[in-house]
Amino acid sequence: MLQKIRVRGPVGRPRTRPDAVAADKAYSSRGNRAHLRKRRIKAVIPEKKDQATNRKKKGSKGGRPVSHDADLYKERNTVERLINKLKAWRGIATRYDKIPDSYLAGLHLRASMIWIKDLIRCD
Question: Domain range holding 52?
Fold first, then answer.
């Protein structure tokens, strides 16, 4: 899943190596962290409690505690709220459209509806 990350820039082909990846505790696996580390991407992922407990049980052989940028992790909330607004549309939440192009068209339509609603609210 992490292999599909693309970051669009103003010109040229999309970058495949973002500066950082913010994710929730579900993605706190050793494999995900190793993949990001290998690609020199900062992982902004908090450690699960059970992983921390197991690491501490091993003592000095358990390694260093995982650190993450708490301020950068807080910005993830903005993205989560947008995804929740997108999923408020049943067709997107249930993946009703099985053809990728029609699903993407639905995403664009819903995103434009959200954008217009925000424009009207700001005026």
Answer: 2-68
Looking at residues 86-105, what average pLDDT do you find?
85
Nearest to 86 by CA among 114, 59, 46, 57: 114
> What's the number of domains the chain is made of?
1
Query: pTM of the predicted model, to two decimals?
Result: 0.59
> Is 91 exposed, middle or buried, given 0-12, 13-18 or 19+ CB atoms closer than 10 A?
middle
Tell whether 26 is covered by a domain. Answer: yes
Give residue 38's pLDDT: 92
Alpha-carbon distance 11 to 29, whole Å?
Answer: 34
d(C-alpha 87, C-alpha 81), whole Å: 10
Q: Is residue 29 part of a domain?
A: yes
Q: How many CB atoms lie within 10 A of CB 17?
A: 12
